[in-house]
Write a structure and sequence with these properties.
This protein has helices spanning 60-71, 85-89, 96-113, 118-122, 141-154, 169-179, 198-204, 221-230, 244-252, 263-266, 269-281, 295-305, 353-359; strands at residues 3-20, 25-38, 41-47, 128-130, 132-135, 158-162, 185-188, 212-213, 235-237, 258-261, 286-288, 338-340, 360-366. The protein is an alpha/beta fold. The protein is built from 13 helices and 13 strands. The radius of gyration is 20 Å and the shape is globular. The protein binds 2-succinylbenzoate and magnesium ion.
């Protein structure tokens, strides 16, 4: 396959309601799409970097620049396959979300050309995946309970509460009291706590949570191991796991017993599969995280989540969890608490050009050397 043209789209999509985490309150999702034209056909990639470097060091503008100035030049004027992309981009340090978007676009193009779905290519074994929902930090417990009630009503099969200092025990207790001990419940701290908060995590042990996600800072694997030894709730890592190697290290250090896999965070869907494989080899279950993706990223996430070691319910929610109007022609819908894994070639979804145009705030043709 040869890369002929590439275009970057900057989108600004309004969220159905503000999404608050320990690091930011989002009312809009700003993101970057990459459209490539190759001799195998067209492909779409989605870059999950956020507008500001608050979840990780990458941010939207940096990703656009890295893709334009450093990543695409390494792929231009040569014959390539999507499986070679991460190797070709290897000399560029970091910028995994930018790399993941490039690889995703080329994978989509290559697989469309070969009439193969991403799920089949990755080794998916399910035709639908159970759907969980990530619930942001709210202004009050009443608001939170109303939101959770709505998601349970819709059929979501697992609830994840975002937590931060001052919003941890109380929301969890309230949700347990209101909806009982049987609803699958977990929390995500986005690295907002320290080892000084041990007592708090020990209190959370009383609520039968499935897991606590990224309680401590990204780079503190030994602190996570220290915490994991002192609490009964399984520790799951998100931000800390940036590659299959770092997943192996985290597991070796006993820093976690569950891993959240996000392709953007680890540099692409192929590295995400390697994270999956490493975890499977160690008997560590994984689940598919989310980054408030459009239907394109969501399509790829569903394909990934169809792999066998995705044994826990992921943040694989339907399109309308975040967006009134998605940019694909057939948005993802919740059916009996599941979302279908696309079966068509490549990502298996089509861009709705009008919907895309309506949320596009900038467009740039990348000049390929
Ligand atoms: O930490 O999992 C996270 C959203 C943006 C950035 C980080 C995270 C999240 C979520 C998942 O919680 C949201 C989703 O369902 O896409
Ligand atoms: Mg997380």
């Amino acid at each position: 396959m040869r890369l002929h043209r590439a275009k970057l789209f900057t989108l600004e999509m309004p969220l159905v309601s503000p999404f608050a985490t320990s690091f930011a309150v989002q009312t809009h999702r700003q993101l970057l799409l990459l459209r490539v034209e190759t001799d195998a056909g067209v492909g779409w990639g989605e870059c999950v970097a956020m507008a500001d470097p608050l979840y990780s060091s990458e941010y939207l503008a940096s990703a656009g620049q890295v893709i334009t100035d450093f990543l695409l030049p390494r792929l231009t004027g040569r014959s390539l396959s999507a499986s070679a992309v991460s190797h070709l981009l290897g000399p560029v340090k970091g910028h995994r979300m930018a790399k993941a978007a490039v690889e995703m676009a080329l994978l989509d193009a290559e697989l469309r050309g070969a009439s193969m779905s991403l799920s089949d290519y990755l080794g998916g074994v399910h035709d639908r995946v159970p759907s969980g929902v990530s619930v942001g930090i709210m202004g009050s417990v009443e608001e939170l309970l109303a939101a959770v009630a709505g998601y349970l009503e819709e059929g979501y099969r697992r609830i994840k509460l975002k937590i931060q200092p001052g919003w941890e025990i109380e929301p969890v207790r309230a949700v347990r009291r209101e909806f009982g001990d049987d609803i699958p419940l977990q929390v995500d701290a986005n690295a907002a706590f320290t080892t000084a908060d041990l007592r708090l995590f020990q209190q959370l042990d009383d609520f039968g949570l499935l897991l606590v996600e990224q309680p401590l800072e990204d780079e503190d694997l030994t602190d996570h191991a220290w915490l994991a030894e002192r609490i009964s709730t399984p520790v799951c890592l998100d931000e800390s796991v940036v590659s299959a190697k770092s997943a192996a290290d985290a597991i070796g250090l006993a820093a976690c017993s569950v891993v959240n896999i996000k392709a953007g965070r680890v540099g692409g869907y192929l590295e995400a599969r390697r994270v999956h494989d490493v975890c499977a080899a160690h008997g560590v279950p994984v689940w598919c995280g989310g980054m408030v993706e459009t239907g394109l990223g969501r399509a790829a996430n569903m394909a990934l989540a169809a792999l066998p070691n995705f044994r826990l319910v992921g943040d694989t929610s339907a399109s309308d969890r975040f967006f009134t109007t998605d940019i694909i022609t057939e948005p993802f819908v919740l059916q009996d608490g599941y979302v279908a894994v696309p079966t068509g070639p490549g990502l298996g979804v089509e861009v709705d050009e009008d919907a895309l145009a309506a949320v596009t705030v900038a467009r740039a043709e990348v000049v390929l050397g």
